[in-house]
């Protein structure tokens, strides 16, 4: 398949383009920090635009209602505005009021709108009325998605992604080591992709199992979308749009824009990008839609002419021009080349060629540091804030994140946070270039900094709603078991649709007690246990059967049921940590040699999650007796469990960290051996972050 090439350049916004939706091949909607929403239409190959709506602040998020042809926009003024796509009226048709801070994300599906905000909540609106408020994140909600059957997905600056059923939080996904940003849903309910300030994109299923980690961006990753063939498209703070297939970068497109805030995909699979230069660019694989050669050349020149700050480049790593005759090692690789004239240029390996993406420029700052407030700085700017008043001093070092400097400046001078973006833009404009290798883990106060991984304080579960699958299993096996009449089965179907947990508990008990194939009964228990108001009377008998390991499928379903027990806020913690129950569970945790290998990944993930949940309980209640027994189990079984699944390894590492957080004396030679084995086997950065946190305890 051919690569993406420039198709069109759309200029009209005066500031950053923060959001784009692409409802039709000839129609694009964009939102900008210039306070406008624009609708772009293509006629006879020419794109033109008009302002659809003007806000009182930055417009940061968009969604589109294809039924009513309405644009949904929101941003800094905390309001959600709904306008007709073909209107240019000054007033919105509807205004949704409820958020207490900037609304940074929107999604629409089936007469529902979901919005995410810096106020740490997401809100679900149905027919333009508030239906749910999703409260549970500890920081800004950066992206939101609507799933089917009243389920929702949210990502947050608290580094987590959460799954919701109505207003109930039913699952928390951990894994990112920094702020979780954009979300995309995989087809056929297979899972989701999440981007992060840690520079990665994680592809996961809804059980929390990691499918792929996309590694290649050199800074924050803001946005992810899917093409119709399953390829992923991402954009970020490293000036790039990247196309991924099977976990690897297929193409890297570098733009003449510091931040590529957003990407969208047209119905014809063309890619649309928006960035900090205020320009929208369309890229296509269709030769019929490729831009004229002169426009492509101008685009390439604008990329080549980007200035890179000399203070962010290590001159000693620059290579000679002969390096350009050697093929790169991977798509997107960047090298610094020192020309015969002594100029340092940045080149990127793209589609089998080295492409120039910028030139390193010097600055007076490299020649002499300036003293301010007892410290030496590369730059000390004079900033006029108020007419007639003396300018304020803004110190900045070339190797720090502009957001760090902006926040420091605003706090020192007691100025409002709303000036953050203007200060950042001032710094960027006046420091002669971009930072080509800004680290992905640089602190960004504007995006909320990440918290430490340890201690981890949220219980995890296996809460996917598989009621349709359970019903099929019940129907199939009931043909031979003959337990339920057709009338009873109709009631069971209704009980699932109305979430009648007590009635479903009776069904589960009946299946477990009398059927040969007991798996549907255990799956029902897994699904309903977080919501049961009372402890099931048959619990001890259920555990005896489920933990006996006569069936690997029933064993791992029992483990999932036990994980979900922690999610029951009424009696779950009390029951699952009862000494008798705890010992019964822990005694069962081992990987018997007789288990079919095809079940070991599921079992190891479930065991690791269960151990992690026990460690969360220990962290909450400082239970020394439980911690010692759990520590013994991790030492005994941890390495074996971790060998079958990266996710199991990660959850066990977090659990070990929780135990050490409560009892630092457990950080001994046995822990050192565990840490060494895990780091040698699993190369993902999230493991480094966990053990770094543990080392600091």
Automatic annotation (TrEMBL):
CDD domains: WD40. It holds the Pfam family PUL. One of its GO terms (molecular function) is protein-containing complex binding. GO terms for biological process: double-strand break repair via nonhomologous end joining; G1 to G0 transition; mitochondria-associated ubiquitin-dependent protein catabolic process; ribophagy; ubiquitin recycling. WD repeats lie at residues 10-40, 96-126, 134-165, 214-244. GO terms for cellular component: cytoplasmic side of mitochondrial outer membrane; nucleus. It is found in: Cytoplasm. Keywords: Cytoplasm, Repeat, WD repeat. Transmembrane segments: none annotated. Residues 452-697 form the PUL domain. Residues 346-441 form the PFU domain. Its main location: cytoplasm. This is Uncharacterized protein. It comes from Wickerhamomyces anomalus (strain ATCC 58044 / CBS 1984 / NCYC 433 / NRRL Y-366-8).
């Amino acid at each position: 398949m051919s690569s993406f090439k420039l198709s069109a350049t759309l200029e009209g916004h005066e500031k950053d383009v923060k959001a784009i939706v692409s409802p039709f091949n000839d129609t694009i909607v964009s939102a900008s920090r210039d306070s406008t929403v624009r609708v772009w239409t293509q006629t006879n190959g020419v794109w033109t635009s008009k302002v659809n709506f003007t806000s009182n602040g930055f417009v940061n998020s968009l969604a589109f209602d294809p039924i009513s042809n309405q644009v949904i926009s929101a941003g800094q003024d905390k309001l959600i505005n709904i306008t007709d796509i073909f209107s240019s009226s000054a007033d919105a048709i509807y205004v949704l009021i409820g958020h207490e801070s900037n609304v940074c994300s929107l999604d629409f599906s089936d007469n529902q709108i979901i919005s995410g905000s810096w106020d740490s909540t997401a809100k679900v609106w149905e027919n333009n009325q508030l239906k749910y408020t999703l409260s549970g994140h500890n920081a800004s909600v950066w992206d939101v998605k609507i799933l089917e059957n009243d389920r929702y997905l949210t990502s947050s600056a608290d580094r987590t992604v959460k799954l919701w059923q109505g207003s109930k939080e039913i699952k928390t996904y951990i894994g990112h080591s920094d702020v979780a940003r954009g979300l995309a849903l995989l087809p056929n309910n297979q899972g989701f992709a999440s981007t992060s300030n840690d520079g990665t994109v994680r592809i996961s299923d809804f059980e929390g199992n990691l499918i792929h980690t996309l590694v290649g961006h050199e800074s924050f990753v803001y946005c992810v979308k899917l093409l119709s063939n399953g390829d992923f498209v991402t954009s970020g703070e490293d000036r790039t749009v990247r196309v991924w297939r099977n976990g690897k970068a297929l193409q890297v497109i570098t733009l003449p824009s510091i931040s590529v805030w957003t990407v969208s995909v047209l119905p014809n699979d063309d890619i649309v990008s928006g960035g900090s230069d205020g320009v929208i660019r369309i890229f296509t694989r269709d030769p019929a839609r490729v831009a004229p050669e002169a426009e492509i050349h101008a685009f390439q020149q604008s990329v080549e002419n980007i200035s890179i700050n000399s203070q962010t480049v290590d001159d000693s790593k620059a290579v000679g021009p002969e390096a350009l005759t050697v093929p790169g090692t991977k798509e997107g690789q960047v090298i610094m080349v020192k020309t015969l004239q002594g100029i340092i240029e940045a080149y990127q390996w793209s589609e089998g060629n080295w492409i120039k993406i910028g030139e390193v420029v010097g600055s007076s700052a490299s020649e002499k540091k300036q003293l301010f407030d007892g410290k030496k700085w590369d730059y000390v700017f004079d900033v006029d804030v108020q007419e007639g008043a003396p300018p304020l001093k803004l110190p900045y070092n070339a190797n720090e994140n502009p957001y760090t400097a902006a926040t420091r400046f605003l706090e020192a001078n007691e100025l409002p946070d709303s000036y953050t973006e203007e200060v950042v833009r001032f710094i960027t404009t006046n420091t002669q270039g971009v930072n080509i290798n800004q680290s992905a883990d640089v602190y960004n106060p504007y995006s909320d900094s990440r918290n430490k991984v340890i201690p981890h304080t949220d219980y995890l579960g296996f809460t996917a709603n598989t009621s349709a699958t359970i019903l099929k299993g019940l129907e199939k096996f009931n043909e031979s078991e003959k337990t339920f009449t057709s009338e009873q089965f109709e009631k069971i179907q209704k009980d699932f649709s109305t979430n009648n947990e007590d009635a479903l508990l009776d069904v589960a008990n009946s299946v477990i007690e009398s059927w040969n194939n007991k798996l549907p009964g255990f799956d029902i228990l897994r699904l309903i246990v977080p919501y049961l108001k009372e402890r099931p009377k048959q619990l001890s008998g259920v555990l005896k059967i489920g933990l006996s390991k006569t069936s690997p499928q029933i064993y791992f379903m029992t483990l999932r049921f036990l994980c979900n027990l922690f999610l029951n806020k009424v009696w779950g913690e009390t029951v699952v940590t009862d000494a008798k129950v705890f010992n019964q569970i822990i005694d069962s945790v081992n990987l018997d040699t007789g288990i079919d290998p095809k079940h070991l990944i599921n079992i190891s993930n479930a065991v690791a999650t269960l151990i992690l949940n026990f460690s969360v309980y220990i962290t909450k209640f400082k239970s020394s007796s439980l911690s010692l027994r759990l520590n013994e189990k991790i030492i005994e079984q941890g390495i074996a469990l971790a060998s079958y699944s990266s996710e199991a390894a990660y959850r066990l590492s977090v659990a070990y960290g929780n135990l050490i957080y409560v009892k630092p004396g457990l950080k001994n030679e046995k822990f050192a051996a565990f840490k060494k084995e895990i780091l040698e086997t699993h190369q993902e950065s999230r493991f480094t972050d966990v053990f770094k946190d543990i080392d600091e305890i």
